[in-house]
């Protein structure tokens, strides 16, 4: 019995020791949790209770080179649900469906989803202020109307293919909006609150607001004024020629900046769903590939001059065709141009003459220049969807392929490759990477964050050769096939192109792509303009369709850019049917009788006022106008403001 008591006491003592140890361990653990981990666990608990309502950052604006807004944001309310706080999902869905003109079933699924918050979409996204006020007035538990942003394009369809557009979540889908989506988007913020296990707001909890970080503003190289000039001419070409499509690009040849880029048919970025998908998912100036035709001859010319394989004063005879390895390659002019210089070969766009240039260069050297000018690979312009074009592999180039490549047949290029290469040919030989982004700015302070510098790819030809190319192409406009791009007072250079389209693997006899590339002033180019018209109805020659299109763009662009006219312009060669440009004489101080008796008039006269002496005239003396234009003279018996009687001119 005594031994049994001893055993019991020992057991009780052991239990006491163990219990004490456990108690001390629990005390230490509790102290550790409360004192050491207390703050961390409290934060974790709060995180598990906290619910966030996202606040969208404002998407960065897109500006033209002068600061004009091309795309910006407008406030657009959005309906959001907090499912845990909704007391009667069925009734709430019914009321929202009626207000938003949406499916009750769809809204009910969104209200009962297992999430802390959910958008009522698509009907509740980016609604009007009036509709937002109506829903707020319903005071539905668990339904909030938060501010969202909607993209707005104030100029409608202007520069649509460059800008692109955004989706329902303000995410970039095409164009610049997609290319620079991350930087334009910014970083979203939130409004957060504490909620219990049922998702209901905890008594006494306060909301926390995390301010969103707005996206940066992007300035483009695009000039909205030049873009408007270009699109006006594109619209007129569509109406006049009824082509499949028409494209144009304007570039600053000295740095690769795109001043304007457009195509037709077009679309409005803010309403893109109303247009056929092919209108907005292809940016034709960088996507379209086609045989360039004679505009490609500029590359052959530049290479032949650089390698001193041709002298422009050298004689050449064009019988109308040239035989190459059994193939007969014809000139566009039936019967040929006969005796001419190589200068005239370029002016007349004579195919046999360019075949000879290509033969003198040889395939290795010609294709070396073609690749150095950037053909056969993407230019790297900062827009999505650019194509490579197609070149012959040098190993598969025979005498015929060499000959046809020399005058732009059998190869495939993109418009952006064309204008980039020709810009290098006329700017002193420097190939620049084309780009449309110019600079990033802080949306709050307006301070410059980053500026895109011109990127020189390589020197392709020498300055001396480039000068020869400019002068030769100026002669093409003054004396040759580019005459319809001539602008009085400005030195314009350029080249026409007319290429048969390939339809079902064969050259079409009736469908063509006609083009023209021009630059001015020819002595110091400030702008290069390229235009191509796909299958114009009726007339199908680049000199008759595309050259006037480029002239219309370039003439107003030069004046807008305040480029001063040149005094040493090459005289234009007039042919039958052309209207001459003449200078308005000074008629002030003369009588009507003297005007008719002493002058060989190239003008019509319109008289205003009474009296025997001209005291003023419109246009003013020295103005250059088309022959046959009307001069309005203002008559009076008073002396004219000028002293002395002017002589007839």
Automatic annotation (TrEMBL):
UniProt keywords, alphabetically: Membrane, Transmembrane, Transmembrane helix
A Pfam family recorded for this sequence: PBP_dimer
InterPro entries assigned: Beta-lactam/transpept, Beta-lactam/transpept-like, PASTA_dom, PBP_dimer, PBP_dimer_sf, PCN-bd_Tpept, SpoVD_pbp
GO molecular function: penicillin binding
Subcellular location as annotated: Membrane
Limits of the PASTA domain: 578-637
GO BP: any one term: cell wall organization
SMART domains: PASTA (SM00740)
A GO-annotated cellular component: plasma membrane
Major localization class: membrane
NCBIfam families: spoVD_pbp (TIGR02214)
Family classification: Belongs to the transpeptidase family.
Record's protein name: Stage V sporulation protein D
Species: Paenibacillus tyrfis
Lineage: Bacteria, Bacillati, Bacillota, Bacilli, Bacillales
């Amino acid at each position: 019995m005594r031994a049994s008591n001893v055993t019991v006491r020992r057991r009780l003592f052991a239990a006491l020791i163990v219990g004490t140890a456990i108690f001390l361990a629990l005390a230490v653990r509790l102290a550790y949790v409360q004192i050491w981990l207390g703050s961390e666990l409290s934060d974790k608990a709060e995180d598990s209770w906290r619910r966030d309502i996202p606040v969208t950052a404002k998407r960065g604006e897109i500006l033209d080179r002068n600061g004009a807004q091309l795309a910006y944001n407008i406030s657009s309310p959005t309906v959001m649900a907090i499912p845990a706080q909704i007391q009667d999902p069925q009734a709430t869905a019914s009321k929202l469906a009626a207000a938003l003109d949406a499916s009750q079933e769809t809204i009910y699924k969104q209200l009962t989803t297992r999430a802390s918050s959910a958008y009522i979409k698509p009907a509740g996204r980016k609604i009007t202020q009036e509709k937002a006020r109506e829903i707020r007035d319903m005071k539905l538990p668990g339904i909030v109307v938060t501010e969202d942003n909607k993209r707005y394009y104030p100029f409608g369809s202007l520069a649509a293919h460059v800008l692109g557009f955004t989706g329902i979540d303000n995410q970039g889908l095409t164009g610049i909006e997609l290319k620079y989506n991350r930087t334009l988007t910014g970083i979203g913020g939130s409004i957060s609150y504490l909620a219990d296990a049922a998702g209901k707001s905890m008594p006494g909890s306060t909301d926390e607001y995390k301010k969103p970080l707005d996206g940066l503003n992007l300035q483009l190289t695009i000039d909205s004024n030049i873009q408007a000039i270009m699109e006006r001419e594109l619209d007129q070409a569509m109406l006049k020629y009824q082509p499949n499509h028409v494209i144009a690009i304007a570039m600053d040849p000295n740095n690769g900046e795109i001043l304007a880029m457009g195509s037709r048919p077009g679309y409005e970025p803010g309403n893109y769903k109303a247009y056929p998908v092919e209108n907005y998912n292809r940016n034709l100036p960088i996507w379209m590939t086609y045989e360039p035709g004679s505009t490609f001859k500029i590359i052959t010319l530049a290479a032949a001059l650089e390698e001193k394989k041709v002298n422009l004063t050298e004689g050449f005879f064009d019988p109308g065709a040239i035989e190459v390895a059994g193939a007969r390659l014809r000139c566009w002019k039936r019967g040929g141009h006969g005796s001419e210089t190589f200068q005239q070969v370029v002016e007349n766009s004579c195919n046999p003459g360019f075949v000879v240039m290509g033969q003198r260069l040889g395939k290795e050297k010609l294709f070396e220049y073609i690749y150095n000018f950037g053909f056969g690979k993407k230019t790297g312009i900062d827009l999505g969807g650019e194509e490579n074009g197609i070149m012959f592999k040098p190993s598969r180039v025979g005498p015929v392929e060499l000959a046809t490549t020399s005058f732009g047949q059998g190869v495939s290029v993109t418009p952006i490759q064309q204008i980039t290469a020709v810009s290098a040919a006329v700017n002193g030989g420097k190939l620049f990477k084309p780009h449309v982004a110019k600079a990033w700015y802080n949306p709050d302070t307006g301070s410059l964050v980053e500026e895109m510098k011109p990127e020189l790819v390589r020197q392709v030809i020498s300055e001396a050769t480039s000068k020869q190319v400019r002068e030769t192409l100026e002669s093409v406009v003054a004396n040759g096939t580019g005459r319809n791009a001539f602008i009085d007072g400005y030195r314009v250079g350029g080249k026409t192109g007319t290429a048969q389209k390939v339809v079902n693997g064969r050259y079409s006899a009736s469908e063509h792509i006609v083009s023209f590339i021009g630059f001015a002033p020819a002595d110091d180019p400030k702008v290069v303009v390229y235009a191509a018209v796909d299958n114009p109805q009726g007339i199908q020659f680049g000199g008759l369709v595309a050259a006037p299109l480029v002239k219309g763009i370039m003439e107003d662009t030069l004046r807008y850019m305040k480029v001063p006219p040149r005094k040493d312009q090459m005289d234009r060669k007039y042919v039958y049917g052309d209207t001459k440009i003449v200078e308005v004489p000074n008629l002030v101080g003369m009588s009507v009788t003297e005007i008719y008796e002493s002058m060989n008039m190239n003008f019509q006269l319109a008289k205003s006022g009474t009296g025997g002496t001209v005291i003023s005239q419109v246009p003013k003396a020295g103005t250059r106008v088309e022959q046959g234009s009307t001069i309005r003279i203002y008559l009076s018996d008073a002396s004219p403001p000028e002293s002395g009687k002017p002589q007839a001119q």
